[in-house]
Each structure stands twice: as C-alpha cells, then as structure tokens.
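FAQ: What does the model actually see?

It sees only this:
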Amino acid sequence: MAIKYRKANNSLLINALKILLAIIFTISNVNAFARHIKDTVRFKRSIAEKVALRLSDSALNEIGIDSLLSKIENVHNTLNYINNATGISFNTRDIEDNFPTIDSNVDIIDDNLSLYNNVLDVKNLQMFNVLLSDLQDQLTDWRSLLFKYSKQLDDMNDQMNAFRKDTVLRSLIADSSFRSLYQTEINDLKSKWALAKKSIADNRAHLNQLQANVSNEYFETIDLQNKIRSILRKISVKSLGKEYDYLWNINSNTIGETKATHDLVRKSYHGQRKILHYYFKRNWDNQFWMLLVGLVFIAWVFTNYKKFYSRKNEETPALSFKYIKQIPLLAAIILLFSIAPLFDIHPPTAYVEIVEFFLVIFITFLLFRNWPKDLYLYWLVIGALYITLSFTGTLLTPGIGFRLFLFFLNLAAVILGVLWLRRLKKHTITFLTTIKIVSVIFIVLNTAAALCNLFGRLSIAKIFSTTAIYGLTQIIGLSLFIEIVLEAFQLQIIVNKLKGGLSAKLDYDRLQQLLKRTLMTLSIIIWIIVFTISLNIYNILYQFTVTFLTRPRKIGSTSFEIGNLLLFIVIIYVSNLLQQGIGSLYGRNKTNWDPEIKKNGSRLAMTRLIFIVLGFLIAIAASGLPIDKITIVLGALGVGIGLGLQAIVNNLVSGVILIFEQPFRIGDYIEIGDKRGRVLDIGIRSSRLIMEEGAEIIMPNADLLSGRVINWSTHNDNIRIDLPISIQPGHSFDEVKKAIIDELSKNDLIVKTLPPDILLSGLTDKSMNVSVLVWVNDVHRIQNTRSELLNDIYRGLDQKGIKVI
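And it is asked to produce this:
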C-alpha cells in the first residue's frame, strides 16, 4: 500500500509539473508575440488569429475578431479622409479673394443710388440693375458652393457621431484584452479623432462666416434691385407728368442753384468716376476684343498696301481711297467706336458720352479733306450741338436760365436740321436715304423737346434732345463705317487681281453688293440699339420681343414658339441665298468662260446641294418641333408627292444625279433636241442654257437626264466647222487649196494639231465649190469664228487673184 501511495503521489507531482510547464510555455509565447506587435491593423489581425485572442465580453467573441478589426480599420480610413478634406479648407480661396471686390461694387452702387431721387439718369439705373443681376448670379453660385461644403461637413460629423454611438466599438475599445494588445493603434485613433473634431469645428465656423457674408451681400443686392425698380417707377410717373412750372410762369425764386445742388453735382461726378473705374475693371474683356478688332483691321489694310506696292507695275493705276491709308489708325478708331454698342448694350452714361464725344472728334478730323466744304461746315455745327447737349444732362436742378437756354437750343437744332436736310439733297453720300430719315427724326425730337420744356416736362425734353443728337451723329459715323469697310474690301480686290489665280476670278461686284447690304443691315441694327437705349425704352422693347417670341403657343396638340418658326424661316432663307450666291466664289458670270470655271462647275453644284441639305436640317433642329411631329409632316409630304408633286421630286432627284454623274459641267457646249448652247447654271430643280443668240433656256433637270444630250466640249472646246466657198473657174484646185491653207495657218482660232480638210464638193463651168472643214478651239464662239475665218480666206484669195462668187 505504501508503495502504491508513493507511486500515486509521484504521478500527481509529475502531472502538476506538466501543467505548470505548459502554463509557463503559453505565457512565454504570448509575451513573445506581444513583443512583435506592429502598428498596422492587418498585421495585428494575423497576430490575433494566431494567439486566438479571447475578449472579456463573450458577445464580442461571437462577432469575430476579423469583423471587429474591420470596424477599427473603417474608423481609421474615415478619420484620414476627414483630416485630409478639412485640411485644404474646401477651396474657398476664390470667394475670399473676390468677395471684397463685390462688396466694394455693391457699396458704390448703393452710394450712387442716393443721388437718383434728384438726378434723372435712367441709363445708369438700368446699368446698375444689370450689374446687380450679374453680382447676384455670382453670389448665388458661391452660396451653392458653400452649402455643398457645409453638407459635406455635416456628413463627416454624422459619420463620427455614428462611430461614437456604435456600442460594439465602444465595448471593443473598453475591453482590457484588446486595449492591451492594440494600445498604440488606439492612441493613434484618439489623436486623429481629436484632430478631425477640431478641423470640422474650425471649418464650420469659417464656412458659417462666409455664408453669412455672402448671404448678407446677396440680400443687399435684392434690396438694391427693388430700390432701383422703385426709383424707375417714380421717374416714369414724374417724367410723364408736370415736373416744373410752365416756362412762362417761372418766378425769380427758381433762378440759380443752391449750395446743396452744387454738392449734389460734385457727388454725382465722383460717383460717375467710381462707376467708370468699376466698369472698365469688370468689362476689360470687351475693351480687349474691341482693341483686337482694331489691330486686325489695321494689320489687314497695312498688309494689303504692302502687297500692292510689291506687285504693282507701270500699268497699275494708283490707289485713290478717301478714308483708309497705309496705316489706317483714324479709320480703325471710327470703326471701333461705331460698333462699340455691339460689345455692351448696358454701359454707364459716362462711358456712352465719352465714346460718342471721341467719335465726333475723330469724324471731324476724317471728314476735313474728304467732304465738300459746305457739308463739312454743317457737320461742325452738329458736333458743337452734340457737345452742348451732352453736357445739359449734368445739370441737376435747372432754373429758368437753363430752361430758356435748352428751349432756344432745341429751336436752333430744328432750324439746323431743316437746312442740313436741304443740303443733303445736293450731295451723294453713302447711306443717304437712311441719313435723311434720321435727320427728319432729329427735327421731330427737337420739336417735341422744345414743347415738353415749355410745358414743364423737362426730363422728357432732355431725353428727346440727347436722343436726337446721338442718333444723328451715330448714323453719320455708321455711314463712314460702311465706307471704311468697303474701301478696305476694294483694296483686297485690287491685291487679289494683281496676284492672279482663282481669287482673281471671283465675281467681286456681286460680293461687294452683298457686303454693302450686310453692312447697312448691321448699321441699322446698331443705330436702333443706340436710339432705343437713349430713349430708355430698350429694355421694354427687348422684354416684350423676347416674351412674344418665346411664349409657348398651341394649335391643337402641337406646341410651338413664334421665335422658333421665324428662326426656321431665316435659316431656310439664308441657306437659299448662300446656294444662289455661291457661284461668285467660283468665278461664274455670263460673259467670261475659262477652264477654271468648267473645272469648278461640279463643285458649285455639289456645294449648293450641301447648303440646301444642311440649311434644311439646321432649320428643323432650330424649329424645336418634336421628332414625332416631323414624322407626321414627312408622311403628309409623302402623300403630297404621291398626289401631285411627282414632277418636282423627279426634277430634284434628277438634279442630284446630274451633280454626281456629271454628263456635262458649267461652261460646256451642249445640244438637246433643237436647242444648242452653253450651260450657264446647274440647279437643284432646273438648269439654264444660254444660246448663241443670247436667250436663256430654263430646262427641268428631268428633261436633261432623260433626253439625248450632245456634249460638244466633254474633253475640250474644239469643234469642226464647215466653210463652203464658191470660186470662179480659171484656177486649179491645188492652187486654191494651197491659198486657203496658207491663210488658215495664220489664224490662232484653229487647232494647229488637226490640219484642215479642203474638199472639192462641186464643179461646173461657172463655179468651183470648195468645202473647208477646219477644227476651231472655241465651241462657244462658232458664229464669230466662222465669220472671221471666212473673211480671212476671202482676203487671202483676193490677194492672189482668185475671185470668190
């Protein structure tokens, strides 16, 4: 028993030692792994898996170590994103840099609006309204951007709150086993968490301040716009009503201006300076493009002058232009000032006055040696009247002296307008009819201004006066603008003709007429813009026109806009004009024919077809009609074709076939049936032939395609003609033949490589009939060539004593 007891005790001791060694070995392994823990979560995940980490909370163990570590990694990545995003301050640099400028501009407008209860300056008020709209658009964009950034901050904050409320994460970090293993990682997350929280708070404060500033400025622009509309309504009511006493009822108390009025003048002057400074700073790109146009014009004229002098010879006539010189600086300035309204239709009043003033000055210099003396003297008076009337708008609270001065000035302007109109009838200048019409308007407006002033409507009187003189000086400047551009184009024509080539064969007369009509149309549009702006009715007319053209209308279930329909018609009309006038680009006319024209004939027809097809497609797209409606229209067109338009469609398709197949070209000499002539034009529906007699034949393309056409000039313009001659007997045939050949060899109209055939066609005791078959090189001049050759043969035979009967 004692031996068994000792054996049992030894066995228990050995087992206890084994358990103790196992525990020591396990602890040493855990410590060894702990010493090799790194900062990255992925490496620690592998460590945790190897040591089979057991957390204190059984619920955490059920989730799994991989999912728990993924949560920690998600927090790590999210905090990195937040700190990176908030570190660059959401890119608000543009707002911070440009907001002071906008704030300053709004303050300038606010300061100037305080003057307009006493000063009638509708142009500046309208410009303020446009500027405020632009500023409002910029502020709206900034508000949207700041709202977007604020929303991103809210999302970041919500993500951090979600992490804070996650019970699993909170329990995991609080667990002692996890914290002992991931202490470095947890400390790093705490540091990033604090940094992200601070960054969100700082950026929110910054964004809130910017949002407050931008929103305050935005609402201030709205208030200023409402104030402008209120002033404009008051001015409208005030100007249409009786503002002052009748001119004959003014007493001595109204004479002169008070010190307050002079202060108002000074404030208005400084306000105008600030407005101009802001306008040039804000619209520098308009001035840049104007300057660029002027430099391009100067370079164009200077280059053409240089080319002319480098290519001219003794036979080249000298240049004699009135308005452009080799360095057309004066002409370029007038051109720019004339088209300035196209670059900005809402400039400040001071800018308009400066532009018009310099336009009058430079016109005066340009006309000094180019207008008749009597007409030039009238222009000097008109210029002086412009300067006088333009300064009347700066007087704020006029007394009897100013009103009497303006009244008699309007009467003098009426007399000047009548005399000027009579003088115009004795001269011929560009844009004469339009200048006469504007002169009549000048007389009518000055008459109305005098009457308005007489009955106390001084504001309307000032508007009529300035509008009248602006309109007259502007139309004269636009007439010079047309002359300057036409002279520059004429210089280009001369240079092209000196260079030769295809450009020398262009139909410049037609192109010049087209350019002149285009310039006149553009000038009328510019004048209408300036005139309506001066009358302060431009915005009203513009809004009415836009509303009328863009308002949706319905016919049945089809919705349309008048503007789209007009655009459809204009595009079709322009494409038709282009396809008709494109022949000028290929040198086509009715008298001059050369191989280059025939070479370009097919190109002309192809280009016409392209213009028509593109014009139709663009017009359809611009009309705004739905595709299903267009399908209905095409279906109805198909029914129409089936009922009665077969002939038209047949001609159109035949025209396309003629363009691609090219059985003949423009300039070819063809014969169809009993008609013979040269092809003058190949159209889409019909083609034109000009006969030797000069008559034009318009033939449907279907007839040309289906009929038998003889083309005498497919490869060249050669044609063989028969010249019958009757000669008195007494000379041998060889002698006659030699004489004829000798005479024909001297003529350049025959083809030298194809010798003529001299045949004896008849012989009697009274005559010898000879047939001369000769190839000539111009099929288009058969009758003229026949006449010239017969005359040469007759003269040659007569010199050798051979009588022709």
